[in-house]
Amino acid sequence: MRLYGVTGWKNAGKTGLMERLVAEIAGRGVSVSTVKHAHHSFDVDHPGKDSHRHRVAGAREVLLASRNRFALMHELREAGEPTLEELLQRLSPVDLVLVEGYKRDRHPKIEAFRAETGHALIAPGDPTIRAVASDVALDLDRPVFDLDDTRGIADFILAEVGL
């Protein structure tokens, strides 16, 4: 599977860019999956639902399925957080996996940047960031796209991964 990341600081526009890229790239007939890293605890289940009751009772994995989708919830139960590589092995094969977050991993990435957040660019100190999508003009040693140039960014990513 080909892999490309979208990284940046909080409120830099990563999720919006990911959403637009998935729509643009999938619309071109390329199969896409995503991986999103969360720095906080999260839950996709709801208290009182049967699947939640199974997990609270101690199940290691709960697979919730319907005719429209299935979700596999895996409780780590004191085990360490899986690496990106380990998580990728759980995905079904697709043409491209877009990864949001995982800024310290070594896969190629585009950095989402909004000047108003007040954060410094990550790109100058990180060679895995191959381009920047920004809301302001920047003078860098790599391509800089307008943060809203979804088509141009998609073209760049697909060329980078050979699709």
From TrEMBL:
Residues 5-135 form the Molybdopterin-guanine dinucleotide biosynthesis protein B (MobB) domain. This is Molybdopterin-guanine dinucleotide biosynthesis protein B. PANTHER family: MOLYBDOPTERIN-GUANINE DINUCLEOTIDE BIOSYNTHESIS ADAPTER PROTEIN, MOLYBDOPTERIN-GUANINE DINUCLEOTIDE BIOSYNTHESIS ADAPTER PROTEIN-RELATED. SUPFAM superfamilies: P-loop containing nucleoside triphosphate hydrolases (SSF52540). The lineage of its organism: Bacteria, Pseudomonadati, Pseudomonadota, Alphaproteobacteria, Rhodobacterales.
